[in-house]
Every structure is written in C-alpha cells, then in structure tokens.
TrEMBL record:
PANTHER family: SENSOR PROTEIN KDPD (PTHR45569). GO terms for cellular component: cytoplasm; plasma membrane. Residues 620-831 form the Histidine kinase domain. The keyword Transferase applies. Its main location: membrane. This is histidine kinase. The lineage of its organism: Bacteria, Bacillati, Actinomycetota, Actinomycetes, Kitasatosporales.
Amino acid sequence: MGRGKLRIYLGAAPGVGKTYAMLSEAHRRIERGTDCVVAYVEHYGRPRTEVMLHGLEHVPRRQLEYRDSTFGEMDVDAVLRRAPAVALVDELAHTNIPGSRNAKRWQDVEELLAAGIDVVSTVNIQHLESLGDVVESITGVRQRETVPDEVVRRADQIELVDMSPEALRRRMAHGNIYQPDKVDAALSNYFRPGNLTALRELALLWVADRVDEYLTEYRSEHRVSAIWGSRERIVVGLTGGPEGRTLIRRAARLAEKGAGGEVLAVYIARSDGLTSASPKELAVQRTLVEDLGGTFHHVVGDDIPAALLDFARGVNATQIVLGSSRRKAWQYVFGPGVGATVARDSGPDLDVHIVTHGQVAKGRGLPVARGARLGRARILWGWLVGLAGPLIFAVLLNTVDLGLANDMLLFLAVTVAAALLGGLLPALASAAFGSLLLNYYYTPPLHRLTIADPKNIVAIAIFFGVAVSVASVVDLAARRTHQAARLRAESEILSFLAGNVLRGETGLEELLERVRETFGMESAALLERAGDVEPWTCAGRAGFGRPLERPEDADVDVPVGDHIALALTGRVLPAEDRRVLAAFAAQAAVVLDRRRLQEEADQARTLAEGNRIRTALLAAVSHDLRTPLAAIKAAVSSLRSDDVAWSEEDQAELLEGIEEGADRLDHLVGNLLDMSRLQTGTVTPLIREIDVDEVVPMALGGVPEDSVELDVPETLPMVAVDPGLLERSVANLVENAVKYSPSRQRVLVSASALVDRVEVRVVDRGPGVPDEAKDRIFEPFQRYGDAPRGAGVGLGLAVARGFAEAMGGTLNAEDTPGGGLTMVLSLRAAGSRPVPLPVGEAGTEPERQAP
C-alpha cells in the first residue's frame, strides 16, 4: 500500500472557516462514495461548524487523565484499525496530552499517511515554526504550539481559506467565533485590523511561495524552457567590481515596484581565468543583497553570457540587470561584450537593463591572464592561417625569387602564426603542408616531390622540426594556463564554501543548493544509512526532479565514508569536476554532523537545566519548606497539649509563630509556582494604564513598616503594566533588599520618569554584589554569599525579572553609591506600544492567567 495524501486548509487566523471548509469537503467526498471518517474535529461551540459534523462517522477519542482532569485526544490505533480512505484531523499543530502515542498531532498524521490513509487537516499561518518570531513581533504573542514548515510543504494540496479582516471582525462581533464575554477583549487585542491584515499577508505570501515551488517542479518535469512571467524575478549579474553595489540597489528598487518581486544576484566564475573578482568585494555584495531580502548565487561557466542566460531561464527570471561595460573603446575590437551579447540572446520574454555607474569606460580594473586556453574561434583561425597561409605565399613567391632560405623563413613565420592562434594541430598541418610546397615549388627538381640536393633535405627537416617545436610549446603553455585557471576557479569556490561553513553561515540545505547551482544540476541530496544492509534515507535535499532513494539512481554520486553519499541528478559530470564535488561532499557530511551535535547539545542542555531545577526543588522541599512546617507542627502540638497550662502571652507567641510559618510557606510556594509558570511560558499579563503610586505602596505589606522609605511622586506619567505582576515584582525586590540591609538602615523605594520609561529603584545599603555576579543573582535558585538556608530558595529576583520582562520592562542591578545594591525596574510609559491579549492555541478562546 502506498503513502496516503495530505490536504491542508491553511488560514490566517482563527475563525476564517478552515474547519467548516474541511467538513464541507468531507460531505462532498461521502456523496461520491468515499469512505471518510472524523478522526478528530473540535467545533468550539460554533453552531454552524457543529451542524456540519452531523452525518459523519466519528472515531471515538482516547480519554487521558492529566492533572486531575480528563481530556479527549485522537485515538491513532482506533483510526488505523478502522482504516478509512480519508480521515479528518483538525488542528495539525496541536500538542497532545502527556501519555499520548506521540507528542504532536502532526506526528499522528504522519502515521496515518504511512498506513496509506488520506488525511484532510487544518492549520493557521501563525503556527508555522519558521514564522514564530514574525508573528510574535506583529501580535505580541509567542505561539507555543507549532508545526515544522516541511510537514506543511510536503502536503499534496494546500488550500488557502481567506477572509478579509473586516468580515472576520464582523463574524467575531456576531458571536460566531468566541463566546460573547470574550468578544470585546479579542477585538481590541489579537483581532485588531492591523494584526489581521499582517497575518493575512503572511498567509498569502507563504502560499505564493509554495505555488512557485509547484510551478518550478512542473517546468522541470515538462522541460519548459520558456519564461513564464508569473512574478517579477530579477537576476543581477555581478563581476566582483565596485559597481555591483549600484546594480543590487537598482534591482531592489525594481523589485519593490511589483508585488512579490525577488532579487537573485549571481557571480559567474570563468573557468578560463580571464577575470578574477575580489573575494572581499563579493562578500560585501553578498551581505548587501541578503540585507535587501535577495539571495546570492555562485556559478561556474566558460561562456559568461550563456551561463547568465541559462541561470536566468532556470529560475524563471523576468529581468536581468547588468552594468555598463568598463572596457575602453579600443577593447571592443575583441567582441561586443557581455551586456550586448546577453541583450541580443535574451529573447522576447526576458528584459535586460543596462545600468550606468561610476566605473563606465574606465577599464576592466581586473587582471587579465595571458595565453589562456584556446577558444573555438582561435582554433578555426589557426587552421585557416595554417593551411591558407602557405598556399598564398606559394603563389606570391612564384613571381619573386628570394632564394630558398628566405622562402623557408616566410613559411616558418606562417607556421608560428598558426601555432600561436590554433595550437599544436593547426601548426603541424601548416608545417607538413608548407614542407610539401617548399619541396614542390622551390627545391630542384622543381614541380616534383623529390629533392636532388641533400642540403635541401636538411633545411626542410630543420624547418619541420622548428615548426613542431614551436607548436608544442604554444599548446603546452595553453594547457598549463587552462589548468591553472581552472584550479584558481576551484580554489575560489572552495575557499568561499569553507569560509561559510566554518563561520556556521551555511546549513545543509543551503550547501546542497550551492552544489546544485555550481555544477548546473537538477537536484542534490545527501543520503545516509545506519549499516551496510540498512536502506538509504535522505538527510537533506535541494533542487527539483525525482527524489533519490539510492546513490545508484543518481547521475553522479560521491561516497563519504561507508554510509554517506552525495547524489546529484541532471547530467554526467566530467572526471575533473569530481575533485571539487568530493570536497563539497565532505563539507556536507561535516555540516550534517555539526547539526546533529548541536541538537544533542541542546538536548543535553535542556536535560541539565531540568536536573538542576529538580535538584534545587528537592533541596527546597527537604529544608526550606520543612523548616516552617516543623515550627508550625511544634506550636500546634504545644497548644493542644493538656500537660502545660499556657498563659495568654505564651499562647499569643505560639500563634504568632504559626502565622509567621504559614506566611513563609505561602511566600515560598508562591515563588515556586510563579517560577514554574515563567519557565513554561504561561504568564500572560493583562496590560492596562495605571499610576505607579497606586501599586508600589501595596507591595510593602510583607515587610516591617519602619524598614522602607517611600519616594514615589504623584506627578509621574502612567505606566502600561499588569498591576498584579508589578506588585509582586516590587514586593520581591523590597523583601530581598530588607533581608540584606543592616539593622536600622531603611530601604529606599523611589520612582522617576525617563523619556518614555518610568524607573522604580529599590536601594539598599547592604554588602552589595560584585559585577561578575550581578546577572547570576537573577537565575532561579541562586542565593548570593553566605545567606542562611532559611532565607529562601533563591527565586524572588528570578520571579521579579520574569514578571518585568513579561510586561515589556527590564530589571537590572546596579551598585549603590557608598555601598549596597540598587535594583532598577524600568517600565513602559503609557502611550507606547501595548502588548495585545493573546488568543489560545489552535483557535481556542483567549484566557487571562492570574498573576
């Protein structure tokens, strides 16, 4: 049984109608007789969606217990046993409840597809892993549930479910998406018109890129060479000269004029070595084009105009931007130049822009190699001179008697000219043909191919030997020059590659794309296997065309060790190219190893952090929590004892001890819970505008009245914060300052305005903290110096900084002039960009977390 097909309905935001469209598709398929079941669909109380579920077969969900609650998840085993033709699976990015078969729902879907079951699913654009940072910058919400882009890209069909922001907000206002009590908060935060417009643009652009990939695959499979101008794609031809920056900026401006414009800068290294670019200048231009949103490409080609046009047609470009020639006027005798040739051969579908710059007609500015490999035109001229030259001299010398010696020198000059132009073979032909003409016309007996005087035989033999020697030297020099030029081109590519890999700038897919472009192949893949008898798997792939399952299926394969191979399709490469290809293969293996080592290091770091947290929690539970519990137990036991008659003062003292122990427990447990919420990303502040002098005094209730001096002016601007989180942060800072302050030294809590910020300072006169330890004291379970065990578990400052950053503020430590430590809490003033209220994952309604 083959692999099932995946169809995904992609939306820009919750409520656009993805689930409704999926259910409509299910009803259409059932009407056509397709066996279709609902594996998991959630309607969230939306009546229209709930109605669409009627008449569809449902696979019962698996019930899981988690944190004293019961949750229903998709039962993968039940769906596999049912084995329908099509399964409906909602919310592809959903995170399964612990104890499920897989951690993520998209992994459940992969199992269904592997079993040959077609799957129809839904996902929002904000849940794509690569767009997490972009979505957070737009909405202020970090999506915790994501799906790898590659999972969505591999879908057989992707259908965009689109809706204008105005229509979506109307649906929200009518109660068709969330419950009425959630509508106002959602409309004023996540579902603002600007947010929805930006998310809609992200969805449209992402789908457009996927459509472009489909188009590229179609053109490759059907060998379509004509340019289809479906979108503006501009190729910039670079020479490595300083004018490249001007060309890149000009191309970027052209791309901005059309929707979805794309810039591709390409440098073509000539294997004949006639030009060489400055690596430093190319690096600058590469950075520039990437900063402008384009891509940089490095290609090897003997014929620069042809290579440039092949590249442009290969990427379906619509325009080419070239600079005006830097050659001087007399240099045009060697040919029309790259720009004129590209413009002449570009055809009707590819526009060529010739851009002027400051280096026009000032000379190449790049070194020119002498005596390079002979081109086709020079070889033709060599044959023409080598064969026609002796014949012309024979006709002319019949009218003038210059003597045999002069005649031989003239014929030798023609042979040398043929060698200089065409190399060895034309020179040999010229020498042989000239010897026959000298023998026939100028050595007695005339007009016969015999020689009467032995001296003439020696002369003709010397003539032939000199001609062959000169031709051999010229041909050897040309071949050596060609080899040197090729090695130089190879070294440029390898140094460029090695520099990127060593700096960590090239991932595996980018490296494979570089291999494909450099050698002009259709696709490049890195295959690996665990053992000699294990099947090959693809570790990374670039390009288009058929996927490779074995190295033997490729046109070119280069092994790297016993279990890794670089495989390419498109054409058979000459043997001289395999040396560079082997270097690419070795680098690809290094990149693959480095990526896996990085993944292992990340996992080890996560495990180490988890172990550290668990160890610290165990220490807190074993001592810091047991101490107040023991004190409370002892006091209660004393009060309940009938053996001792406690006075009222003693009873009051014991009750006070119980209250203090309970307060300590409440504070410790509160900090532990806050820290766990911060580390799991579940702290969601409710931002509103409030005066600092309303919140800060409320944070001083947990410290003695005479231990703090308050200086918070009423004239300060309002701040945009969550009042509960701000109060908790200030309370932790003040408590920490009082704990380390000397007796009879009051802690100063002051506030002041600074540009668009309001700073709250908590100043103590304690021992202070050295500079190297100022960041460490904000880490969880860190207590500076010789603080006693009963002083807490070291979470107060960590929680305070976490809450401050959650509200868009900062918390840092500074030295107090004269000794001590000052905590500086910087908050956003009202009127700056607010943090929107987030929407629950996978389309659930928004929910505020209590501080």
